[in-house]
Every structure is written in structure tokens, then in C-alpha cells.
Amino acid sequence: MDTESQLGAAAGGSLLLCAALLAAGCALGLRLGRGRGAVDSGVLSWLCYDALVHFALEGPYVYLSLIGNIAEADGLIASLWKEYGKADARWLNFDPTIVSLEILTVVLNGSLALILIYAIVKEKYYRHFIQITLCTCELYGGWMTFSPDWLMGSPNLNTNSWLYLWVYLVFFNSVWVLIPGLLLWQSWVELKKMYHKGTSLRKKFQ
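User: That's the sequence. What structure does it adopt?
Assistant: C-alpha cells below.
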């Protein structure tokens, strides 16, 4: 497949929609993070984008998969998943593992992202508990999405195209590994600081 056909209307439209969701997530996150530090503003931007992806893209995917399959569906969201299905064929037809994971992702991860946004904005004590839980769920979902296919020799993955391999499969999925990993590290550091602060206060009043 040549480069021109790879970067056709379907691919361009799908990437444009993802970019629009990213812009919307960043704008909303920066608004919610107004007056906060750069780190929290960045985290809020990511969480807003994360929630938008779960509800606006993956939610319709679950619905369309439960009433039929993506390959036969019409509409903007269906066309995006059809394009991604060129890289991973399991997304085109009803795959029980993928659909089960996506139901969990939409309901649990989407809800946790909203709760975490609230916890950060309102400075709730449970912020890092929710953050660790959400990040663990994101990493689990990524592993269980690809591990079964890897164990079978990746029969459904199209790695012959640079677009499908490096953009659709590697880039888009690695984002949900890298950022949750960084947020787990942030939670570790912040919890460590809180522990040492509490220990110092107890020693001071002993």
C-alpha cells in the first residue's frame, strides 16, 4: 500500500477527530486547572482528554458492537473504528475480549477519570487512591487488549504499513501506557512526601 492511499480521507478524518478531542481536553483541563501548578494543569488536561475518549469514542464503539458490528455500521465514529480496524482486525467484528474490555473501560475508567478530575479540583484526600486505581486499570486494559493476540502470533495485527504499525498500534496505545505510568510515579512521590511529613510531625510532638 503506497503512502498516498495510507493517508487518505479516512485516515485523515480519524486523526483530525482525535486531534479535536485532544484540543478540547486540553482546553477544558487548562480551564479547570486555572490557578494551579503546571503539573496539575497537565494532569487535568490529560484526564479530560481521557474521559472524552472513553465516553465519546469507546462508548459508541461498545454500543455499535452490541447491536451489530463496526464493519457494517455507518457514521463518523464507525468510520474512525473502521480505519483503526485496518491495523487491528478484531475491532471490526464482534470480539468478546475486546468488547468486554471496552465495556469495563467506558464504565469504570471513564467514571474514575471524572472522579479524579473532581478530586484534583476540590483537593480531596482520596485523589491519589483514585489516581493509582485509574492508572492500574488503564495499564491492565492495555495489556489484556494485546496480550491474547501476541500469544497467538498476532494474526489480527497489520504491521506491514508504517501508519498502522507506528501510528495506530504503537503511538496511540503507548500513550495509555506512558502517561498512566508517569501518574503512578507521581502518586508514589506524593504519598512518600505525605508519609515523611506525617512522621516528622509525630516526632515533633513526642
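The chain is about 80% helix and 0% strand.
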